[in-house]
Amino acid sequence: MNLLDCIQYAFPDARPGVDFTLIDRLDRNGPQIATWDYAGAPEPSTAQLQEVAEDAAREAIARDVRFDRDNLLAADDWLVQRHRDQVDAGSPTALTAPQYADLLRYRQALRDMPTQSGFPSNVDWPSRPI
């Protein structure tokens, strides 16, 4: 994440060129804050901006994991719906009661992934039972 993105992530109301300006000098290590006139907060330190970049990266990973998890849930929605329809209609079900229970436990494990201690960078993906 570049410096401008970090600042805009941490201070969404701060306007580049108005509340702050950046300068990229060849004799320095990349872009620097040249001026800081944002009334909403004091000028952030390099360490604070590094923390912002790390938080944003974690959020991006979490968003990707949730996206994949949501796709796995959506892929089995039809199985759940079909089973419920068959039960409601009094028809024989394609899934046995234990298979359906396993499917429901799998889906719950997917929903519970954000509560895992390693989330989002180190998660245990449940195995699809069917």
TrEMBL record:
<feature type="domain" description="Phage tail assembly chaperone-like">
    <location>
        <begin position="63"/>
        <end position="129"/>
    </location>
</feature>
<dbReference type="InterPro" id="IPR019094">
    <property type="entry name" value="Phage_SP-beta_YorD"/>
</dbReference>
<dbReference type="Pfam" id="PF09636">
    <property type="entry name" value="XkdW"/>
</dbReference>
<feature type="domain" description="Bacteriophage SP-beta YorD">
    <location>
        <begin position="3"/>
        <end position="58"/>
    </location>
</feature>
<dbReference type="InterPro" id="IPR031893">
    <property type="entry name" value="Phage_tail_APC"/>
</dbReference>
<dbReference type="Pfam" id="PF16778">
    <property type="entry name" value="Phage_tail_APC"/>
</dbReference>
<dbReference type="InterPro" id="IPR035950">
    <property type="entry name" value="XkdW-like_sf"/>
</dbReference>
<protein>
    <recommendedName>
        <fullName>Phage tail protein</fullName>
    </recommendedName>
</protein>
